[in-house]
Amino acid sequence: MLLYSDTGRAWKQFRQEDNIGTFSGNINSDGIVHHKLSHSIRTRFLRFLPVDWSPGGWMGLRVEVYGCAYKSDVADFNGRSSLLYRFNQKSTSTVKDVISLRFKSQRGDGVLVHGEGQRGDYITLELHKGRLALHINLDDVKMHPSSGHVSVFLGSLLDDQHWHSVLIERFNKQINFTVDRLTKHVRTGGLDDSLEVDYELSFGGIPLPGKPGTFLRKNFHGCMENLYYNGVNIIDLAKRRKPQIYSGNVTFTCSEPQLVSATFLSSSSSFLSLPLDAATETLSVTFQFRTWNREGMLLSAWLRRESERLLLLLVHGQLRLTHHRSALQSQALSDGQWHTVSISVGGFQVSLSVDDEPPSTMQLKDIAQPERSVLIGGCPSVLTNQGCRNPTLAYQGCMRSVIINNQPINFNLVQQGLLGNYSKLQFDICGIRDRCLPNYCEHDGECSQSWNTLFCDCSGTGYTGATCHNSIFEPSCEAHRLTGSASGFFSIDPDGSGPLKSTVVYCNITDDKVWTVVNHNSTEMVRVQGSSLQKPHVMKFNYSTSLEQLRTLVGRSEQCQQEVVYLCRKSRLFNTWDGTPLSWWLDRAGERRTYWGGFLPGVQQCACSLDENCIDMNHFCNCDADHSSWENDTGVLSYKEHLPVTEILVGDTNRSGSEAIYRVGSLHCYGDRFLWNAASFYQESSYLHFPMLQAELSIDISLYFKTTAPSGVFLENLGAKDFIRVELSAPSVVTFTFDVGNGPVVLMVKSHVPLNDKQWHYVRAERNVKEASLQVDQLPLRFLEAPSEGHTHLQLNSQLFIGRHQVSMSFESGSSVTYTFQEPFSVMRNHSRQSSAIFAQSSNSRESIAFSFLTTQTPAMLLTVNTYHQQYMAIILAHNGSLQIWYRLNREKEPDIFTPTSLNLANGELHRVQIHREGRDMYVQVSFEKVKKKKFGKSLTLGKVTGRAGVDEEVLQAGSRGFIGCLSSVQFNHLAPLKAAILNRGSSLVSVLGNLVESNCGELADKSSSRSLSGKKLTNAAQSDSAVIGGLIAAVVLITLCAVAVMTRFLYRHRNERTQQMASVKEKDHQPRPELRYRAELDLHGAMRDSRKEYFI
């Protein structure tokens, strides 16, 4: 860990992206690891705390730090001081302002910047409960009360006595407000753009006019640095005693408080035991604490002549002082703020004081005399037998300014073992962090937190789940039909877990179709007279849902339409001379459209022209005939990308007798394109690819599948290091695997029956910052919590592949691909450094390797994995072409050699090798021939390997020869080295030597698989001749069948339409419909839709 401090006493932990607080170092004796900080820090002291030594057991630390010069102008404010910057004129009016400063505060409240004008303009920057608030108003409050006011809150826990940067940029009504690395963009309301401030701008407080040293609100108590207002260095002017600056009790060196904090790390075993003077007959304890936890024991003390302890507890966030059956209670204090607590015990009375509240008292039966020690934070395990047990949890949080019997406690003496005793404490630092900043609760969920995790309250949001990610509403009216609903108003959420909220629509559910109806504000007939292009009639349509929701709804539907009724009398739609539009409508994007029916947007026509029945064939619309009688140009708009109609303009009703009547109907849509689409993958190499998943913080994946294959990848998306994958890893096992930077996480659901039974099965996988889950059919949900510390963002950089995306490469002499593991791979270790439950599934008792190869070279190195301890595993082709698996797990013993087959595999044909190890059993499959054998990082290498210590001679010989040929679909557990070599060239994890060319040799795997199912190779001419004869017979039969099919189609083509209709009816009668989503009470095997779409790949 890296800590930094200005004083050398109060330290703060540096955190990288995703709040990662540790840095990995080298894991050998001479390696160098460089870390570039994600953001700069300005500090006087650095402290490096080793958290763990290298996996090899080596201990040592060498550090170099690089920095740069820094200029600083500092002002110290003691809570009764301020700086006033006076303008040259009575008032100043600005349309652009820039204020920048750095500050560190000793308390959570105080005004940093304030300015105001007589007409009501003001700007205030203040700390409020450790957060920065910016209040600004640009309007005259008498003429426009509160219309131009805006308040913005940003940051958290800013009273930590460490430096924080602030930048305020305003241009007219637009404001950019930045605190540290967080920025909010807001816009003020009202009419004015300028900020008018009279006389002066104050820094550090709001002084009362005419009363120096008297302030309207709490003053800032702390230090400011490099304070600039519109380019003016305020502190520099004050230091040089310039006349435009008034300095009240401000000094120009930053005073350092003597407050030193300690962090109680564990909610089960942290405690601090402090001794008392044996002669004392009273007890007084004062301390400050801050925490997010709602439960915990703060203090425990035995009182002589009493049978019970005096306990100070946090219960449901409130302080509770108990003794016997008596109790005192305070307000909620688990808000992350510093609170001061004082307890006084003397005579027959105990008093409790919290912050600035008046003390509460409790009477005792006997005179209280304290024992020889006081416990703070929890009970040590050694005192359990003496009746000291944590009644709830041990305290987890920060504490400082501990005073016992008027004697301040020196934490340095405690840390050195010279005073009292402690467990699971971290000194000189308050390790609190705000897990709700930023807010990971989606869809306006309310975030709360404990010390280790966050919680999301989804009440009233319409969403559910750990982060309010999953919508509780169906995505469409079609989905409501599948639940058995009848027609009516329903809430639907067309984008599911996306950012758009639900909306209410009318679902017209009929036997034929399910229509989704969205109304707007004007569905009645509208009469128009006296309009022209210069003064047109304009009607805007406001729908019952937002345009973004409408866009999603229309895109999800199979077809949408909107009727426009248009009646006219001497009112044209187009100029009959040059075709200029005289009336038009706007689509959902605000674009002008001049067609009035159908789905052909590029044609200026009405429905009668499309139907070829206009009253005057010289015109494309009935109205353009310009008759004095009423004509009709009603049409149905059905081009989805333009719907719905948002505005209509009528411009030719200003002539004598000219008139138009129109009505724009509701939007009607039917069908759900996402409800049931099926794709058939007939080859192992088949796949679909889509744009990269947007899944940084959360993602949910659901699908149905049916197959007869024993394994296969459903979905995969890769990044430089991160990835996500859902697959059928075994006939009865579905696996959800991902890595967000903390190491691979594996969730598996095992079925008691095979899942490759050619029946539909449901899979749903979800991952967010709180947890990950996997559901398969009606089997129990597999669930894992995310670690409290670690990466949270899933960083992907490639396309999303549905199905297996094979990567094949041709290796030439000297070519190789080396993948360096980020840390020693779990299969090579006997323990895990991670204690979080989410890593428990990354089991170190199994590994899987799979690849295909084609070569004629022997000997050859196919794959090798080695560790820093001269352990290795190698897969080679021996001189005779046989496959050999070498592994050495003990440097002192001879390597174990396993030869699964003695056949010559260097025969220029494609072979598939799969290796799976669980515990002490290793299973090898070569061209689908199974063998079983007993038991089986630094890096993984494909191809040529240079000399390495501890590697056996035969393996070295094969490694020096490398590999010439084709490797395809290489996988080592969750790693895909060939994919990494293609997608992440230049990455420090992947090293490519020699010439590598992408190849399609992997596509031969499917062609050879049918031959290799028996595990035997055809070796004699008779067998080959038989194969040729069989192939010729099959070709003749195929040609005959094709001819019969052509003749049959010719004879029955006039009955084709009738045949399709009958087939459709039959399909509806016999095939049940599928569900939109998984429902435990329904039969999953009946989930087939009558109108399903299948794509064959």
From TrEMBL:
Alphabetical list of PROSITE patterns matching this protein: EGF_3 (PS50026), FA58C_2 (PS01286), FA58C_3 (PS50022), FIBRINOGEN_C_2 (PS51406), LAM_G_DOMAIN (PS50025)
Transmembrane segments: 1027-1052
Domain EGF-like: 432-469
Xref: Gene3D superfamilies: 2.60.120.1000, 2.60.120.200, Galactose-binding domain-like
Cell location: Membrane
Function comment: May play a role in the correct development and proper functioning of the peripheral and central nervous system and be involved in cell adhesion and intercellular communication.
Protein name: Contactin associated protein-like 5b
Species this chain originates from: Cyprinus carpio carpio
